[in-house]
Here is the input.
Amino acid sequence: MGDLYALDFDGVICDSCGESSVSAVKAAKVRWPALFNGVDSALENWVVDQMHVVRPVVETGYENLLLVRLLLEMRIPSIRKSSVAEGLTVEGILEKWSALKPVIMEEWGEERDPLVNLFGKVRDEWMDQDLNTWIGANRLYPGVSDALRFASSTIYIVTTKQSRFADALLRELAGVTIPPERIFGLGSGPKVEVLKMLQKKPEHQGLKLHFVEDRLATLKNVIKEPELDGWSLYLGDWGYNTEEERDEASRISRIQILQLSDFSTKLK
Here is the structure.
């Protein structure tokens, strides 16, 4: 009896926060150029630093753009268009992001799909113009590339990242090629639906099923689906989550808190 591992990408395999933050600033300059009038390099660096702090709230990449703009509006009253920015703190973003996001999108007149497309386009252009720098802004977590390379388990990637970026990083940073039909990226549908589909495949019957994720909210969505009761669920404690989320997860019997060294051992 073998094992099947469905792995999230950002926050489980790859620390992409440096790249996604810089890409978000680049994309925000394209989308809202006037916001950056008078923004000096020190303020821009502050935004990128804060993006590392608020990264646990991001479910899909385009949200990084919203966070860049919100952080700027928190610091510069003269450009403020959102009712929530005044008095808002980074801690407030971590606590209330799901409620803040629809408010700011409406107040800024933004829609999801154009932001998704812009974020992907900016990344594509960066890759085309300077692949080495783009790759270098990402890093794999220690031990993960060897674990993937020598894994005896069946591996799938289930991510909200666009598949082409996950594929490029696996090849360039890990020296690993995962067949495209095993990478479920943005546009593949909710992760719970991907897991349902994977467990139904004839070739997966009899395999032990494991799902490794760094977002507690995603694991809680899986728990709500009785059809997915057969999956072992893991929260990676090295990923983009907070101490409060790890504490909450430790009280949920279905979820195992996983450390990076244990994760690499499991895959091998």
